[in-house]
Specification:
Elements: H1 2-20, E1 39-52, E2 62-65, E3 68-80, E4 85-108, E5 111-137, E6 142-165, E7 182-194, E8 198-207, E9 221-231
Antiparallel strand pairs: 1-3, 1-9, 2-4, 3-4, 4-5, 5-6, 6-7, 7-8, 8-9
Length: 232
């Protein structure tokens, strides 16, 4: 995951520095005047990578929840208070996925042995973020936004497929750790608007609630989303 994110973040920083050089002429970098367009809507589509973790002490030997992929599709509304200050509510349909591997030690007639469970998780949800967006003019045609704000997530469906390897002489089933139907947290990130209409953004979704029905399972919900859009 780190090897994937670091090149992306370096490329984004390089792009921002390059676009910053365009500010030699044109609009004020930080414009505090009244907005020319106080309200507009935009369409968004993108991909994400997410993870849903457990506390490491839940299983004896191994507990790994890997990052998976998904998609986002939705819409946002820009409510401009000033040219530089925008409140942006959004509504997204989002899928997330991930793989898991759990290993426990169990007692058998011959002693102890490993019980191994692995599988795949996928979920679908409605996500509703409301972020405060600070806008900067890199040039007449390019605006840079820095966003942060809360979100809530209403999970529509969780599906889990698991395979279980049980040592001979034991009776055990798939561990029933179920995700919750609700999540809430903080969304923050950055984006570019080009030529007044075309949008490119990257955001991090940091869950702030217990992601599992059993709060003793601990863990966290987290995701990166990479989004393209068009502002009308």
């Amino acid at each position: 995951m780190k090897s994937f994110l670091h090149p992306c973040l370096r490329a984004l920083c390089a792009l921002l520095l390059t676009l910053g050089a365009l500010h030699a002429r044109g609009a004020d970098f930080f414009d505090t005047s009244a907005p020319e367009v106080p309200f507009r809507i935009g369409a968004r589509i993108g991909v994400n990578t997410s993870n849903l973790t457990l506390d490491k002490n839940i299983f004896d030997r191994w507990n790994e929840n890997s990052w998976g992929t998904g998609f986002d599709i939705g819409a946002v509304a820009d409510i401009a208070l000033r040219d530089y200050l925008v409140i942006q509510p959004g509504f997204f349909f989002q899928s997330r996925s991930g793989n898991h591997t759990y290993v426990n030690m169990v007692t058998t007639p011959e002693g102890t042995a490993e019980m191994i469970q692995y599988g795949h998780r996928r979920s679908y949800a409605f996500n509703i973020p409301v972020v405060c967006s600070i806008r900067f003019n890199l040039s007449d045609d390019v605006r840079w936004s820095v966003d942060a704000g809360p979100y809530i997530s209403l999970i529509l469906k969780n599906s889990l497929s698991s395979t279980l390897y049980v040592p001979a002489g034991t009776e055990a089933g798939v561990t029933g750790i179920e995700p919750r139907k609700f999540d809430a947290g903080l969304k923050f990130g950055t984006g570019l608007n080009i030529l007044g209409h075309y949008y490119l953004g990257v955001h991090y979704w940091a869950g702030a609630t217990h992601p599992w029905k059993d709060s003793a399972a601990g863990g966290a919900s987290k995701a990166w989303s990479f989004t393209l859009g068009y502002d009308f």
